[in-house]
Design a protein that fits this description.
- With 292 residues, this protein is an all-alpha fold.
- The protein has twelve helices and two strands; from the N terminus they run αααααββααααααα.
- It has a two-stranded antiparallel ribbon with strand order 1-2.
- Helix 10 packs parallel to helix 12 (256-280).
- The two termini are 39 Å apart.
Length: 292
């Protein structure tokens, strides 16, 4: 049963982050997840100072608020200061991360409160983080319920806004001509990314979240030219990576999160190598990618 809960948690995170990662890759904003993972630190500290508690809810609320601030600043610097997106990301997350370190050293130096609270979660601990009712009934691991709810929200968001997300990702100018607010859908997507990443940090850790946010969508991008198929392949890859990564870790007696991330990289490398091999054998040139 332990294996089931760990694999299920990994699959939930992989699918949730992967679906959003598809749109980040198309928008050339893949490293936003990495920026959020560092930028949430001041939010965690402020939440602790206001609540006086290290309970999960205030930590997540503080981290989520700072994650949204980070995405706003990235877009603001990109549009107003004409910075490239990667430069805006670099400036934003280093500034916010440094602010968090200063707040810790100045106000929470005697408390065990640092990025370990959120950034370096361990998926192996999921089966012991149980949801127990007041009557003593054990309902299973708490993260599974949280991540399932987040996946449902993300899936509904993509289903409802699929056309707008697709158009604003592939051709923002055309979307604006149709009367679609590119700024609104950008911030809605960033809000969804913040929700998915922050809710996953405590359970699986930032490194695995970033791997799932980029790896499966990048692999699917190599395999298909259709956005709908890209989303479906990403979800399937997420389940495969969670299953294979866990049993690889079990066989090697190694880090579960590390093995899942390695399987993600190996999968991408294998697909990339296969494509290169096909091209060297005289395969026709890759067609123009369709909108989906």
């Amino acid at each position: 049963m332990i294996a089931f809960w760990i694999i299920l948690t990994g699959a939930l995170v992989a699918i949730t982050c992967g679906l959003l990662g598809c749109f980040l890759i198309l928008r050339k904003m893949s490293m936003v997840g990495d920026a959020i993972s560092h930028a949430v630190l001041p939010g965690i500290v402020i939440a602790f100072l206001l609540s006086g508690s290290r309970e999960t809810l205030p930590m997540l609320l503080g981290a989520g608020a700072t994650g949204m601030l980070a995405t706003f600043l990235i877009e603001y610097f990109h549009r107003r200061a004409n910075l490239q997106t990667d430069a805006a990301i670099g400036v934003t997350f280093t500034f916010l991360f440094a602010v968090g370190i200063i707040l810790i050293s100045a106000y929470a130096g005697q408390v065990d409160l640092d990025q370990d609270c959120v950034l370096y979660g361990e998926i192996a601990y999921v089966p012991i983080d149980l949801w127990v009712t007041e009557g003593g009934l054990i309902l299973g691991p708490r993260p599974v319920y949280i991540l399932s709810a987040v996946l449902l929200v993300v899936a509904l968001f993509i289903k409802i806004g699929y056309k707008e997300l697709k158009l604003t990702s592939f051709d923002p100018a055309f979307a604006s001509a149709l009367g679609i607010s590119t700024a609104l859908w950008h911030y809605l997507l960033m809000a969804a990314v913040s929700l998915a990443t922050v809710s996953s940090f405590e359970s699986v850790g930032a490194i695995l979240v970033i791997a799932f946010l980029i790896g499966p969508p990048a692999t699917a991008y190599l395999l298909t030219h259709d956005l709908k198929y890209m989303l479906a392949i990403t979800a399937a890859l997420g389940i495969f990576i969670a299953f294979t990564g866990y049993w690889t870790a079990y066989w090697l007696n190694a880090s579960i999160a590390g093995c899942m991330a390695v399987v993600t990289g190996i999968g991408f490398a294998a697909v990339f190598a296969a494509q290169r091999l096909m091209k060297t054998k005289g395969s026709p040139a890759e067609p123009t990618r369709a909108i989906g």
